[in-house]
Amino acid sequence: MTSAVSRDAATLSALRGLLVDLRDKNPFYMPRLRDVSPPMPSSLADFASRYPLTSKAELVADAMAHPPYGTNRSEPLARFTRCHQTSGTTGQPLRWLDTPESWAAMTEDWWEVLRQAGLVPPDRVLFAFSFGPFLGFWLAFEAALKLGALCIPGGGMSSAQRVRVAEENSVTVLCCTPTYALHLGKAADEAGWDKSSVRLLIVAGEPGGSIPSVRTRLTKAWPMARVFDHHGMTEAGPVTYEDPRQPGHLVILERSFLAECIDPVSLQPVAEGRQGELVLTTLRRRASPLLRYRTGDLVQMRRSASGLVLEGGILGRVDDMVVVRGVNVYPSAVEAVVREFPEVEEFQVTLDRTGILAEVDMEVEASPSVAAALEARLLRDMGLRIPVRPAEPGTLPRFELKARRWRTIG
Prior knowledge:
By secondary structure, this protein is of the alpha/beta class. The chain has 11 helices and 20 strands.
């Protein structure tokens, strides 16, 4: 086992190498680091106390001022061979560039995610999503190829077509979002496929894979499959894999990231085991780097035998929290309650900001009695009355990528 001293020394060495690049070659970070003195951190704690944070708003502003890619590059533009972009669910999408070296480093990280999940060469993997501009799909596919699995792209297909492909190829591993895995499981049942060949369900793109009630639903939808969670982002790459010792917890890929947890208001470090915002510095993706990047992810971080662990995975989004009649409400907390009701096929929440106070209500594809029971459970568990209305089956939106179940008025 790597000692804490040697681990921190290796991280500090990689960090100093990154800082040399940023100071000498990166137009975005050079002015931000000009006044940091002394120029090199003496320790990881020294780094966290003196170096500036990076926000997504700053990156977006830079990209708009210097279209189309911004200035956050430590190599000449001609050296970059990959271009992807963020989903834009919280604002302007960001285009992100990678050199072959940065791409190889991230592929190695996804390879580790798949290895921890238990993927082996005889496996047949269906990637049940459209291969659009987002980073993770392409990395996961290339990493699975390197592991020697049979990789089946599922882009440009309906759910019924994906079910047929999975059945005809005796797929053993399914890779998609938690939301889509639930939807595809129902489509498989409707098609009469028993799904018994699928032994592993790798989910990402949403926090649902680490929410106990969602995991329970996934296990019921795919009874022979182990659920394995992972999270990452286009700006950073693959960040975590599920803790093999504690399902539902996520382990940071520390060879590639220096992770911190800060109070999102004071911006000061929080104590181990307390909730805060995840902050990441990329150690190996150096051509398009991030220095103390505020991810917006709400986490609870602790050192364990498995490494640096996010207990319960991604607990929510700092910027997703809304205050309704004095109660702090996170969408992930609402979903955790909804998923305790297996009768609910799909749901949608409306946040109405047109009045003096924000109000929330919900539609669910379920019977009136289930809607009433859910409303009572939300009141009990969250201390907030959220009106819940029944909707006809199949009338609410379905999502292949990140689910957008919350809509805002006003």
